[in-house]
Amino acid sequence: MSIQTLIDPFGRKHDYLRISVTDRCNLRCIYCMPEEGMEFEPAEHLLSYEEITDVVRILAGMGVRKLRLTGGEPLVRKELDVLVAMLSQIPGIEDIALTTNAIFLAPRAARLKEAGLTRVNISLDSLQPERFKSITRGGDIKKVLASIDECIRVGLSPIKLNVVLMKGINDDEIADFLALTMDREINVRFIEYMPIGHHDSQWKSLYFSLDRVFEVCAEKGWSYEAASSLQGNGPSDNYTIAGAKGSFGLIHPISNHFCKTCNRLRLTADGVIKPCLAWSEHYQVRNVIGDDEAVRQLFLEALGTKPESHEMSRHLLEEQTTHTPTMRRMSQIGG
């Protein structure tokens, strides 16, 4: 019997799975979750490492080659290197990345690398210690910077820094972030603030177009060119400033959505398949783990409902959307 591949109704081939291992986080970033009032899944409701590995084994047989571990903050989950080691031994899996706030990363980076982790994306929305503490509601930027140095040392590369640009909060730091790419092989990715789980006036007031990044380059006299060879799975348009060792990227889901090339599915910490980040459609896979064919069919069913676009730009224009937006926060989905 031939195994079906993961192709959606619009012909997009899916070879990339984002796996949330927890909905908990040690920080409370202002764009990700409220300061108080979040209800987290009990530990017994989370997929075990064995269950996650079983799902990935099946999907690898359907063409999945790339994985990303997310949260919440994935490093609040104990012994994450054990899961990385289990996943890295699955035939067909070629790339395992991690998205993290990096507060806990420095002492664990070497062990994760040895287990089979390929790369890291680090969330870093300000280079100013007090502003960083305010955005994250308590984070210590020194620990993040130490983690970046350690990842470079152990060879977790390329390192990507995820910077969510927000109007009036950190939009004056664009040049400082670009300067990081001059003497280090770092990819700084500027990301538009997305309305995930809260389509409210705060999001609209903080939304900031990424065109400003090119304007800053012009003001500084920095010439740049497209960089097409950067390793990774993301939807970033990448550029290199002349003479720089690193690069910068733009991820603009609102102003210039990347849905035409979407190749990703999501598995949440509580066992929900999400074919699209933005919409409410979801499928509970946990109850069929152990039945390989049932898992395959459920992923195919989920993929069959994947819409052509997330339509986030319509929120900005206050236009009606064709699907129901998710009310799960980013931390509950896994980004």
TrEMBL record:
Please give the Gene Ontology molecular function terms for this protein: 4 iron, 4 sulfur cluster binding; cyclic pyranopterin monophosphate synthase activity; GTP 3',8'-cyclase activity; GTP binding; metal ion binding; S-adenosyl-L-methionine binding
- Per the entry, which co-factors are needed? [4Fe-4S] cluster
Which SMART domains does the protein's record reference?
Elp3
Q: Which InterPro entries match?
A: Aldolase_TIM, Elp3/MiaA/NifB-like_rSAM, MoaA, MoaA-like, MoaA_NifB_PqqE_Fe-S-bd_CS, MoaA_twitch, MoCo_biosynth_MoaA/MoaC, rSAM
Q: Which UniProt keywords apply?
A: 4Fe-4S, GTP-binding, Iron, Iron-sulfur, Lyase, Metal-binding, Molybdenum cofactor biosynthesis, Nucleotide-binding, S-adenosyl-L-methionine
- Binding site residues for S-adenosyl-L-methionine: Y31, G72, S123, M194
Tell me the route in metabolism or biology where this protein functions: Cofactor biosynthesis; molybdopterin biosynthesis
**Catalyzes what?**
GTP + AH2 + S-adenosyl-L-methionine = (8S)-3',8-cyclo-7,8-dihydroguanosine 5'-triphosphate + 5'-deoxyadenosine + L-methionine + A + H(+)
Q: How is the cofactor bound?
A: Binds 2 [4Fe-4S] clusters. Binds 1 [4Fe-4S] cluster coordinated with 3 cysteines and an exchangeable S-adenosyl-L-methionine and 1 [4Fe-4S] cluster coordinated with 3 cysteines and the GTP-derived substrate.
The chain positions of domain Radical SAM core read 9-225
Q: Name one GO biological process term.
A: Mo-molybdopterin cofactor biosynthetic process
EC number per UniProt = 4.1.99.22
For this protein, the parts annotated as crossing the membrane are: none
Superkingdom of this protein's organism:
Bacteria
List residues binding [4Fe-4S] cluster 2.
Answer: C259, C262, C276
Q: Which CDD domains match?
A: Radical_SAM, Twitch_MoaA
Tell me the subunit arrangement.
Answer: Monomer and homodimer.
Tell me, what does this protein do in biology? Catalyzes the cyclization of GTP to (8S)-3',8-cyclo-7,8-dihydroguanosine 5'-triphosphate.
Q: Which NCBIfam families match?
A: moaA, PRK00164.2-1
Protein name per Swiss-Prot or TrEMBL: GTP 3',8-cyclase
**Gene name linked to the record:** moaA
